[in-house]
Amino acid sequence: MYQPDLEKIKRKQAELQAAHRAWIAEKAKHEILAFADEKGNVVLHHPDGHTEIVHEAEAG
Q1: Predicted local confidence at residue 59, as pLDDT
Q2: Quick one: which of 3, 6, 29, 42 has the fewest CB in 10 Å?
Q3: DSSP assignment of 18-59, as one string?
Q4: 30 CB-near residues (< 8 Å, 6+ apart)
Q5: Which of 18-56 are b and which e, b meaning 16 or more Cβ less than 10 Å from the residue's Cβ?
Q6: Closest listed residue to residue 20, CA positions, set 31, 12, 32
Q7: Digit-coded pLDDT (tens) for 11-60
């Protein structure tokens, strides 16, 4: 039976997460990014650093 190397998988996952964070940080310098915040609101992040909620999550 195949046993995956969990430590290798965890290292690769951490590497990919770091690369993704760096990529998003670079994009945020030049583009408007949309994401959901911890409350479920749709938020736009502008290159100048300000954010705006474009859609509020429904309560409940």
Answers
A1: 81
A2: 3
A3: HHHHHHHHHHHTTS-EEEE-TTS-EEEE-TTS-EEEEEPPPP
A4: 47
A5: eeeeeeeeeeeeeeeeeeeeeeeeebebeeeeeeeeeee
A6: 12
A7: 999 999 999 999 999 999 999 999 999 999 999 999 999 999 999 999 86
